[in-house]
Design goal:
Helix content is 41%, strand content 16%. The two termini are 22 Å apart. It has 2 domains: 2-172 and 349-369, Glycogen Phosphorylase B (Rossmann fold, 3-Layer(aba) Sandwich), CATH 3.40.50.2000; 190-345, 3-Layer(aba) Sandwich (Rossmann fold), CATH 3.40.50.2000. The radius of gyration is 21 Å and the shape is globular. The chain has 15 helices and 13 strands.
C-alpha cells in the first residue's frame, strides 16, 4: 500500500498528538513494507532533516499555510490528497476531520471529544470546525483510530460510529537510556506536571492544592510546569510569580524530546489533574521511568494508569493535596507505586499498535472498494 499520513501536528513541537503520530509511524514502518509518506504543510516551518531517518517514511512538504489548507479541506474538501501526493491507497488524518481524497481510503484519528463538551475552551480551527463537522466526518471515514477503549466508547456513543470501524492503537512506552530499570523516587525530586498549559489540564486546581500543602509542609519540593503556555494560561503564569509560589513554582515551557529523560529523572512524582484526556502520554512516560503518578479520575487516565498510581477527582483540591503529600513524604507508598507503574508501562507497545494500524488500513481499503462487505472489529 501507498499511505499518506498528515504529519503536521509533529512539524514543530511534538506534544501529545504530534508525538503519537511520529512514534506510531516509526513503529509502523519497522514492521510493514508499505510505502509511507508524511505530509507536511506550512508557509514558514520545514520538517527537520532527521524526520525521514527517524520514521522510515518519506516526507512530502508543501508551502501552503496551515490555516488556509485547513479551511479548504474542512469547508470545501479540496484539494484532494492525490493532487498533493499522487496516487495513494490510504490517507490518514492525525485529527478528527478527513483529508479529502478522490479514491484513497480515508482514516481519521480521534483521541478525545473534549471539543464537543467544552467548545468554549478551544480556539481557531478546532472551535470553528471540529464540533460542527467531526460526527459527519467520523461516520464517513473508512476507519477511525483511537488510543484507548475510553476513546472508542466515546466515538461510538457520541458520534454514532459503528464499533467495527474503530481501531484502538495505544501509545507505546518509551525506552530510556538510564531510567526504567528501577523506581525513581529520590527524596529531593520535584513535583512534575507535563502538558500544554490549556484549560482542560486544570493547572489552577493543581496550584490550589500545592498552595494548601505549603501551608503545613514548608519542606514541600518545588513544582515544575513543563509545557507550552497557551493564551489561556496567563492567569496561572502571573499567579506563580507571586507569593507563595515565587521561587517555588517554575514554568519551563516546552521541553524537547532529547531533554525529557532528564526531566523525569528530576521528578519525585508526576501529577496530571486533567478534566479530560484522550490518553495522557506523560503518565505512561512517567510510569515507564519509574516515577509515581497522581492522575485525574476522568477521561482515559484511569484506563491507562489502572491501579499503578493514585486517582483523584480533578476538582477535589483537598484530595489532590493529600495524594501529592503521600507521594512526596511516604517513601513506602512511592516505591510501591513506582514498581506498579513500571509493570503497567510494559503492557503498552508501539509494535502491537502498529500491527493494529496495519489491519485498520487493510480494512479501510476494502471498505472503500466495496462498502457493503462484512466488517470485522479490531477494538484492541
Amino acid at each position: 500500500m501507498r499511505i499518506l499520513v498528515d504529519y503536521r501536528p509533529a512539524l514543530r513541537q511534538r506534544t501529545g498528538v504530534g508525538e503519537y503520530i511520529h512514534q506510531l509511524i516509526r513503529a509502523y514502518t519497522a514492521v510493514n513494507r508499505d510505502d509511507v509518506l508524511l505530509f507536511t504543510s506550512s508557509w514558514k516551518d520545514r520538517p527537520p532533516a532527521r524526520v525521514e531517518g527517524e520514521t522510515g517514511a518519506r516526507v512530502i512538504d508543501r508551502r501552503i499555510p496551515v490555516r488556509v489548507l485547513n479551511y479548504l479541506w474542512h469547508r470545501h474538501e479540496w484539494p484532494p490528497a492525490e493532487m498533493l501526493a499522487g496516487s495513494i491507497d490510504v490517507v490518514h488524518s492525525a485529527h478528527p476531520l478527513l483529508m479529502p481524497a478522490r479514491r484513497a481510503a480515508q482514516v481519521v484519528t480521534i483521541h478525545d471529544l473534549f471539543f464537543l463538551s467544552s467548545t468554549h475552551h478551544t480556539n481557531a480551527e478546532v472551535r470553528r470546525d471540529y464540533a460542527a463537522l467531526a460526527a459527519a466526518h467520523a461516520m464517513r471515514a473508512d476507519a477511525v483510530i483511537t488510543s484507548t477503549q475510553y476513546g472508542r466508547s466515546q466515538v461510538v456513543d457520541r458520534l454514532g460510529v459503528e464499533p467495527e470501524r474503530i481501531y484502538v492503537c495505544p501509545p507505546g512506552a518509551p525506552t530510556w537510556r538510564t531510567l526504567g530499570r528501577a523506581p525513581n523516587v529520590a527524596a529531593d525530586g520535584c513535583i512534575l506536571f507535563v502538558g500544554t498549559l490549556e484549560p482542560r489540564k486544570n493547572v489552577g486546581t493543581l496550584l490550589d492544592a500545592y498552595e494548601r500543602l505549603l501551608g503545613h509542609r514548608p519542606s514541600l519540593p518545588r513544582l515544575i510546569l513543563a509545557g507550552r503556555a497557551t493564551a489561556a494560561a496567563g492567569d496561572w503564569l502571573r499567579r506563580i510569580e507571586r507569593a507563595p509560589f515565587a521561587g517555588r513554582v517554575t514554568h519551563l515551557g516546552y521541553v524537547p524530546d532529547q531533554q525529557r529523560e532528564d526531566l523525569y529523572h528530576s521528578a519525585r512524582v508526576l501529577v496530571m489533574p486533567s478534566l479530560d484526556e484522550g490518553f495522557g502520554l506523560p503518565a505512561l512516560e512517567a510510569m515507564s521511568a519509574g516515577v509515581p503518578v497522581v492522575v485525574s479520575s476522568r477521561g482515559s487516565l484511569p484506563e491507562v494508569v489502572n491501579d499503578a498510581g493514585a486517582q483523584v477527582d480533578p476538582m477535589d483540591v483537598n484530595g489532590l493535596a493529600d495524594a501529592l503529600e503521600r507521594a512526596v513524604f511516604d517513601q513506602a507508598w512511592a516505591t510501591r507505586a513506582a514498581h506498579a507503574g513500571l509493570a503497567r508501562a510494559r503492557m503498552f507497545t508501539w509494535t502491537e499498535s502498529a500491527r493494529t494500524l496495519h489491519r485498520a488500513y487493510l480494512d479501510a481499503v476494502t471498505r472503500r472498494r466495496d462498502p457493503v462487505l462484512p466488517k470485522r472489529s479490531e477494538g484492541g
